[in-house]
Amino acid sequence: MKVLVTVTDVAVVDDEFEIDGLDVDDRYLTYELNEWDDYAVEEAVQIAEDGTDVEVVTVTVGPERAEETIRKALAKGADRAVRVWDDAIAERELLDAETKASLLAAVAREEEPDLVLSGVQSGDDSFAATGVTLAEKLGVEWAAVVNRLGLDAAAGVASVHRELEGGVEELTDVELPAVLTIQTGINEPRYASLRGIRQAQNKPLDVQTLADLGLDESALETPLRWTATYEPETEGEATVFEGGVDETTGELAAVLRDAGVGQ
Amino acid sequence: MTVLAVAEHRRGELRDVSHELAGAGRELADATGSELHLAVVGGDAESFGEQLVREGVDAVHTVDHGEEFNHDVAVQAVEQLADGLAPDYLLLPHTVNGLDYAPAVAERLDLPLVTDAVGMEADGTLEVTREMYGSKVETTIEVEADRAVVTLRPAEWPQAPTGGDATVEPFDVSIDESAVRSTVSGFEEVAGGDVDISEADVLVSVGRGIEEEDNLDIIWDLAEALDATVSASRPVVDSGWLPKNRQVGQSGKVVTPDVYIAIGISGAVQHVAGMKGADTIIAINTDPNAPIFDIADYGIVDDLFEVVPALTEQFGG
């Protein structure tokens, strides 16, 4: 059995930042393994540990910088990695869900996984649409926002809980192969062990260009244009207490007592 | 021109976002000189159809197929609705179920998809406002196409007012059952337990800023000093440090206490959806730009590990 996990190297913005053109100035960005993908990687590694002969392959659309994050996923237990990138992709300002799914689908067609695990969304652009778009491109089943997964590989069924709003979960059986988008909290992601980190250095990490995947630049065409980025006007009218901790907590305590708290 | 919005229901009830889609749909229809059509798939379609008749809605289409949402049915039904009604803009909810079928609908209809919209402007072309980096910035996306699928963030648009005189008509679809490869077998309530945070008058709520499970002690101490109940944002529950029944937010509980003290909570939209109805909101956070300060009444921008014990002390704890 083969599990393909999509891994995104997401940008995280510092508390204080400036915008440069269409994006946050690079000086205020740090990159890390997307939180949702961390849970997806863990779920895949647990499937591999529980089963026999399960291969876990990660796939990432991202520049060379992303390899640090990819190695982290390998250190946690994935077997090998594919990274998709070339100059034409680098030139794109906006990689929308459909474009990203086209690239991932090309890799999935080569890998032919039984199961694809994808984070519900990425922490930066938060489209939350790549996984289901990928499923539709591959013509396979899917389930979005999965927070429990039971796999019956022999029967070819994934029994999932989908986390709906308001503390309700939907119980659904999905035919394999399938793409599942994984919600945070489904498991407890491990920290990579030192041994894992050492081993990850020697695990295969293939870089694929558009041409390698049998695609050309038309795969990157999208009618969506990213036209502006700005800091939202704050609607806040909060009274922020200034000063040392004794002062600020003293003033806050007075507000709380006025509201009848702690009397 | 036509704007088509698809309603959402669950366990016998139409969800509020349906009327927000109608509200947003009317705005977009006015901006583009369009008719606004609504559709509902499954459930008590006839009754839902009547409930969807609101001011500004020109027509309602009901698809009588199945009780609960199933994405394989929804995708086929909405594809056929789109084929029949030829909408220029198709509006779907950015809900958990919206996430489960909107991308497939867009893909099947070969239409561009913009998700999680918090604003829409149409002046020749459609411009969608959405957020990035956990609400730290807003961006605009221009759709250089005549048609598009847009998913709308819940609780961002006003609900369409009651009233109106739209016609409600059944819409026939033919669902290929062999393409229905997922089965919804039931629902499970997961937020039960010993404490009901939605009943609390005062909530001391803790988020990712607490960093480690052992640090929760200072939160319990404060709650005890204030005679308050402890609740949490998602990361704390995801980490297993507090049970699900203490989670405030979209996937947890909606709370409306007299006082809500958000400690180390940035205020992601999913969290805010669960607590913005509190009378007084207090935020303690090191990040002055954290979105929680946009809705807070009072705040302290400082290290919670200093502030929380000092506040407890103010109450003799």
Describe this protein's structure.
The complex is a heterodimer of chains A (263) and B (317). With 263 residues, chain A is α/β, with parallel strands linked by helices. Chain A has a single domain (2-220), classed as HUPs (Rossmann fold, 3-Layer(aba) Sandwich), CATH 3.40.50.620. In chain A, 28% of the residues lie in helices and 31% in strands. Chain A is built from seven helices and 15 strands. A nine-stranded mixed β-sheet of chain A has the order 11-10-9-12-8-1-6-7-13, with helices on both faces. Chain A has a two-stranded antiparallel ribbon with strand order 2-5. Chain A is globular, with a radius of gyration of 22 Å. The N and C termini of chain A lie far apart (62 Å). By secondary structure, chain B is α/β, with parallel strands linked by helices. Chain B folds into two domains: 2-176, HUPs (Rossmann fold, 3-Layer(aba) Sandwich), CATH 3.40.50.620; 197-314, TPP-binding domain (Rossmann fold). Chain B has a seven-stranded parallel β-sheet, with helices on both faces. In chain B, helix 2 links the parallel strand 4 (35-41) and strand 5. In chain B, helix 3 crosses helix 4 and helix 5 (217-226) runs parallel beside helix 9. The radius of gyration of chain B is 22 Å and the shape is elongated. The interface between A and B is large, with 85 and 97 residues. Strand 15 (239-240) of chain A pairs parallel with strand 18 (298-301) of chain B, so a sheet runs across the interface.
List the helices and strands and how they pair.
The complex is a heterodimer of chains A (263) and B (317).
Chain A: E1 2-6, E2 9-13, E3 19-20, E4 23-24, E5 29-33, H1 35-50, E6 55-61, H2 67-75, E7 80-84, H3 87-90, H4 97-111, E8 115-119, H5 130-138, E9 141-152, E10 157-163, E11 168-175, E12 178-182, H6 194-200, E13 205-208, E14 224-230, E15 239-240, H7 245-258
Parallel strand pairs in A: 1-6, 1-8, 6-7, 7-13, 8-12, 9-12
Antiparallel strand pairs in A: 2-5, 3-4, 9-10, 10-11
Helix pairs in contact in A: 2-6, 4-5
Chain B: E1 2-6, E2 9-10, E3 13-14, H1 17-32, E4 35-41, H2 45-51, E5 59-63, H3 71-85, E6 89-93, H4 96-109, E7 113-117, E8 119-123, E9 125-132, E10 137-143, E11 148-152, E12 167-170, E13 182-189, E14 202-206, H5 217-226, E15 229-232, H6 234-238, E16 259-263, H7 269-272, E17 280-285, H8 292-295, E18 298-301, H9 304-314
Parallel strand pairs in B: 1-4, 1-6, 4-5, 5-12, 6-11, 7-11, 14-15, 14-16, 16-17, 17-18
Antiparallel strand pairs in B: 2-3, 8-9, 9-10
Helix pairs in contact in B: 3-4, 5-9
